[in-house]
Each structure stands twice: as C-alpha cells, then as structure tokens.
C-alpha cells in the first residue's frame, strides 16, 4: 500500500527536527546518523532516501533551527508590551531558560566553533542564517546592520560564556552583564 501524499516530507521534517535538536545539544561531530534517526523514531537505514549525506542534513538543520529560534523570539515579542521590543529579545536570549535548554536554543552559539571548521557549503548556509538573525535583530531594534551585528555578537558571546563555566553564580552574572551591556548598546 502506498504512503499517503506528503508522507515523505513529514518524515524528512522529523529527521531535520531531530538533527537540529541533537546538534544544538551535542554538536555536529558527536552526533551520529543512527542517533538522529532514533530521535526521529526511525531506523537509520532510511536516512539515505531523504539525504545524500550528513552534511546536507547539517545545512537543513541550521536553517530549521534558526527559523525555530526566530519564531520563538517573535512569539516572545508579540506577547510582551515592553518597549523597546528588542529588550524582550535580549531578556529571552540571555535568560537562564535559554542558557539551560541548549537542545531548543539558538544554534548559532551552539555550533559556531564547529561550523568554522566545516565545509564551504555548510559555512555558506550558516552565514545566510546568521545574516537572517542579524537582520531580525537590526529591524526589531531599529538599528543599522553594523549595530545589529555588534548587539547580536555580544549576546552570543555572553551566552557561550555563560554555558561554558561550571560556576552557577558566574554563569548568572555573565548573563546579567550581557543583558546590561546589550541594552546599553541599544540605547546608545
């Protein structure tokens, strides 16, 4: 019996979602195709009917994860009355919730170091997705791309450092300092 229309796309979407979650939590190198397929509720044998290789999946997972993060940030903005709206994004991005939930967090701080050593194809996709994130930040903050880049870079750096240390107080203070600096940058 044939699968219903759209079945292959639904399965592919499950694989991409599983990969995005696994890559955000564990990095690219430490995540195997069987692990991703298991996370999608599938056997690894079906992987190659959807993707040519893991690299293609990494590229799609980056696109998916950035779209997912942008949707979360937009939802947070839409639910808050706070002005300027960019402060809602700063508060969410540099929150303990975002720090502690890497598997659903922004993929940019999670994979930047690994992406720098990846193929040109993956770096190109990552570059496009980073530009999309900076454009969102810039537009929401009513600032030019240069200032938006500086703001997002400081947010990513604060989050990376807060996730890296094993001292909870230091981690919290890095998030707090990052928020304070980011908001000061917006108001400058």
Automatic annotation (TrEMBL):
It comes from Paenibacillus polymyxa. This is Transcriptional regulator. Pfam families: TetR_N. InterPro entries: DNA-bd_HTH_TetR-type_CS, Homeodomain-like_sf, HTH_TetR, Tet_transcr_reg_TetR-rel_C_sf. One of its GO terms (molecular function) is DNA binding. Keywords: DNA-binding, Transcription, Transcription regulation. The keyword Kinase does not apply. Residues 9-69 form the HTH tetR-type domain. Residues 32-51 bind DNA.
């Amino acid at each position: 019996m044939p699968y219903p229309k759209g079945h292959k796309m639904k399965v592919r979407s499950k694989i991409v979602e599983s990969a995005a979650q696994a890559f955000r939590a564990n990095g690219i190198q430490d995540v195997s195709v069987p692990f991703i397929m298991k996370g999608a509720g599938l056997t690894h044998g079906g992987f190659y009917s959807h993707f040519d290789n893991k690299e293609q999946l990494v590229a799609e997972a980056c696109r998916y994860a950035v779209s997912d993060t942008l949707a979360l940030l937009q939802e947070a903005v839409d639910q808050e009355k706070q002005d300027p709206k960019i402060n809602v994004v700063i508060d969410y991005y540099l929150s303990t919730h975002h720090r502690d939930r890497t598997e659903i967090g922004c993929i940019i701080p999670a994979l930047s170091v690994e992406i720098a050593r990846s193929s040109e194809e993956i770096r190109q996709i990552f570059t496009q997705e980073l530009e999309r994130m900076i454009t969102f930040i810039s537009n929401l903050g009513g600032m030019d791309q240069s200032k938006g880049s500086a703001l997002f870079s400081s947010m990513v750096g604060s989050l990376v450092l807060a996730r890296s240390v094993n001292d909870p107080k230091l981690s919290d203070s890095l998030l707090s300092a990052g928020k304070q600096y980011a908001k000061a940058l917006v108001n400058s």
